[in-house]
Design brief:
By secondary structure, this protein is an alpha/beta fold. The protein has eleven helices and eleven strands. The chain folds into three domains: 79 residues, Arc Repressor Mutant, subunit A; 96 residues, Periplasmic binding protein-like II (D-Maltodextrin-Binding Protein, domain 2, 3-Layer(aba) Sandwich); 108 residues, Periplasmic binding protein-like II (D-Maltodextrin-Binding Protein, domain 2), CATH 3.40.190.
Length: 296
Amino acid sequence: MDIRRLQAFCQVYALRSFSRAGDALKLSQPTISAHIMALEEEIGTALFDRLGRSIIPTQAGDVLYAHAQAVFAELDQARAALLALSDRVTGELVIGGSTIPAQYIIPRLTARFHAAYPEVRLRLEVGDTQGITERVLDGSLHVGLVGGATALPELTCWAFLDDALELVAPAAMDRPDLSGPDWRDRFLGLPWILREAGSGTQQALLRACDEVACPLRSVMPVLAVPSSLAALECVEAGLGVTVVSHLAARAYLDRGVIATLDIPHLSMHRQFYTVHHTRRKSFPALSAFLALCCGR
């Protein structure tokens, strides 16, 4: 298969548009269409269903895309390995970050990394801990920085940063006493803003509650939200309480729009982890980024 046709196919698949694929590759739309038609003729089946203005991959398209991604990943690794012979760190590094690392940790890490290795093309993808871990596993991300470890044998996790979690409430809210013998009832009766199930923050909070037999899993929250930023905005608006990373809460606490609630019975600490595929061949940019994260 012609590599240029595969590149055109992958762009159409990712962007769901012939015209946007042409813009990305700096090719005309007729050229993109010709590449796709030639591929379809070569393999003897359609790669896309054209439904009006919509482009939907067929099952054959899904299969080819998965294999094409693997091919391009191998080519990138080959290019990086060859350049490593001349002591150059270059190529592309695709980093996945769960919410807190993506917003508060990765920007500073990548600034330092770019200063040291300006030839590396960096791309950041954001999701929750579970989603980022799954994407490292399927190979679509080179490395993830997440708020929870995985036990999957195919993945390697390294702890690189400690984090404290804070129980925060609206600044004007009366602060309940959560230190007495019946603290669980008052704690569970708070108006909760909770993160989604795949969130590392949510997983850490549930583990801490399970350790002291506090059934937070049974609580119906006022609102479930997809990010720490959304949770903090809800707290500032007076909607309820939440547990977030101190890294995320710091600016809100400094402005005095939220306040911490003391909860002595819960130990809410966690670590952030790098996660990469154990069996995937390492390459210079990935090795250098992992070394930076872990202070080596």
